[in-house]
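Issue: copy button drops trailing tokens. Both records pasted manually instead:
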Amino acid sequence: MRGDGRSIEGYFLPDLGTGLIAAITDQAGMELLRFKLSQGVTSIAIPSNHTLVSEFLKQNGFVPYRTLIRMTFGESVTWKPGAIFSRGSGYSG
């Protein structure tokens, strides 16, 4: 998704697992999420502390199912859960 026509603010990879959405702006992430949901998606995984997406999903009839723990191996890496608007699957963040 292009914001100012010169940079990419987010992307949607529908064929990566369950469809990864990552974005550096809330506007781009939410627009891509709306598009994904318009395709008939009935289940979506997000980081548990991404309150913007969580509240949006609740307002649109989704209910929390379960919470998973993020696991890492080795040294911790910089993690920006606010950039993930839909997790692709267990192997992609």
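Record 2 (pasted manually too):
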Amino acid sequence: MSIKTGYTLRSASNFFGITVFFFLLLWGYNYQRVPVAEQLSLQILPLDEETLAAEILYTQEALARIRGEITSDTLPIESPVSYSFMEDFARSEVKENLNQLGFDTRGFPRTKEFFPAGFLRKMGILGIYFPFTGEGYIDPSLHPLEKPFTLAHEMAHSFGITHEGEANFVAWLVGDNSDNPLFRYSAQLKLFRYQLRDLFISDRNAYQKILEDLDPGIKNDLESIHRHSRRIRPISDRLSRLSNDVFLKTQGVGKGIQSYAELPMLVYAWESR
């Protein structure tokens, strides 16, 4: 081995070591914190079909009620909202909700749009928290109905909530308690999509029946989000899912990317507490 090659390898090894050190110092050790569900004494159990059906009905009613506060027609909601307003609002709402739950919310975290638009989605993610800058980022190409929830999710990460399902739960809780109908609708819509996913897995006939009887406005919103998501496809959906799954598991999140889908169980446990 030449002196130049040895120097290059040592430099690369040093850089890797420094990166890991600062990642753990700035963020990684948060993965070892007591889970939010445990701190709130929530019993997380799979939902049986009867319970899931009841929860879906409840969410549908909430969606129809909240949507009526936003618009009186059935056209899909696609109008953009000021990002600076959403960020400031999400920060104050996340702080307030986490304070009420007894969590430390010191600091002034930022969550920004990451350009070029579509880059994060091509990597298979909607948003990301980057500990080396202390900021969260979301893809600016997200559908307007996805942005409020995703922004609150990344803001929850900024306050040390590492578990993806629990960051989803905090984002849902922020929306559920908000006086802003768009944030409430975005949160309930995300929950509804996870619930529909679970129903599709357990009973496809019931899933089809729900879609057939769905409020036209809500159905148009779901179809609009689906059309919007098809415009930008991940470079390799399998690779992005696998890499994210491996990363989460190495950090102590045993269920990996499946932790995202725990939202319906967390919400049910919260409402049944």
